[in-house]
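Marked as duplicate of an earlier ticket. Keeping the data here for the record.
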Amino acid sequence: MQFPMFVVSVAQLLKMTEVRAHEILKGEGIAVEYEESMGKAAFISHEWVGDGHPDPEFKQLSVLQDALTYMMSDLQQIPADGFTEVHCKKKPFSTSALRTQALCVWYDYFCCPQLGHQLSLSSSNLSDSESDLSKAVASIPAYVAKCSFFFALCPVIMSEELGKVFSPQTWAERGWCRMERTVHDLSKSDGWFMIKSWSEIELVASFGGAVGGAPGFGKFTVGSDRRKLAPVLSGALKCKLQTLLKSLNLQDYRVLLNMQNSIMQGLPAQELAEPRPGFASAKGLDDESLAVSAFMYQNGFELVQEVDDAGWSPLHYAALAGQTLVVQGLLAQRANLDCQTQHEQPRVGIAPGTTALTISCFAHHNDVAKLLIAAKATMDLGLVPPLHYAAHAGNSEGIRVLLDAGYDPCTRDFFGLHALAAACTFGSLDAIDELVSRARMSIKPSDVSIALSIALAAYGGTVDLVHRMLDLQADVNDSWSVPLMPTSVFEVWQAINTLEHQLGHDTSSTRFHYHAHGRTPLMVAVMCAQYEAAAALIAAGAQLDMVNSRQKSAADFARVETMPDFLRQAFEGDTTGCKRLASLATKYVEM
């Protein structure tokens, strides 16, 4: 920690009516240096919604005030979002942890020196402030580690001044927000919380950059910020690796060691960590054998055919790392080309039964994928095929590599879903376009409807994705039909969730499937608080008065007072706000 960690108590935060800079709050004794005796701290990650000011109209922070009040008084549990619940088996978070001690928050504008506020000072003082700001930025990993909670504050906000729409999806695109989320994932593995409105708060899993992607591929207002971010993130990685190694947590150590390339993608080159000292190579080794030997040493493996407690072999980890030379050497030493992982790996987001080829496609290591394909890797192994993982990760080049190698685009995953559904999970337009351009004939009308529904239920609910699906002939008022007798794994799973809900097991996932029969895309969007997508659907002609088989309309899936004004007005008969938001969001995407 190169700059002190300042915080603001929740009691002081709830009194605010405007967002004021650190220097002012510090002078008034509101922003104070954090000490553990003060209670627990929460890190607030957010996207600035003003030009040179984080929240000029106090729209975003007012949502935080109401959300904190709600969580610390009326709310008993924070549910996991549907994707996190299903894929990571996360249980709801008890809000009692927020009330056991006093709570304070770290919010960048309150707690870091603000150059804008310093412009009126002398140049020497400005230089000092710049130095302090750099130190505070470098200290962000330490601040995150000190905080007991991580909140992503990302309600849907329209800015007429900037001509933009801010949403959970735009938050996930920001480079600095991705960095904050990544260092949180490094310091803790128990998930974080997304605030979509004052009462729509969800627990989100910490694994593999599920929401968003590599920080270096994020959007930066100032391009030079990438250079600032690189050493900060690299230092956090090295620190975490040393901690894992000292605690002999080899499973997480190996995962993180070999994810360094993926995490640092898009940033200025940094020396990758090699935490295990003392490697001594045998004399006379060629480059390939030397690379394998060093890799095996750093990962703590002795045999090429070895499988660790997670069911991963050295070849799996080498594919995750994207080390082509190591993969080549392992194959030369008779590594099992089609070896499948034996257990799921939630820290990466990888299911059991996954091959090295699939892992390389998921991690955007397409040179490794080409090498494995050339070595005659079986391309259709696993519960989730490599094409689906490439689509899921937004790896459009990986999709091309697989299809060029003769991969069958009609291949379905374990649930019987097309790769288009995987591409829509995180709203990857590049992957969607690649699949449509190369494999259009393999996509059925039902695939498009399912893909849109999955996007709205997961993290892909943008205006642009809705438009893309409608271009593919998705019906904006499609009424989902659930068969009486399930015939696919997906339908069986849906029936099981419905039964669990009827038996009193009320979760995001069971509720979603319980109301499936007769639901429309708009109902899904509102149920999952995908407000931007809901506005796009309404602007495209979605009917507001349709009901599902349980006689529930879209408005019934959210309390009116929790919805943004543009949606509340739409359900009252005025769709102007939804049309304006859809127009602004589309304009932003095109820019």
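See parent ticket for discussion. The chain is about 45% helix and 5% strand.
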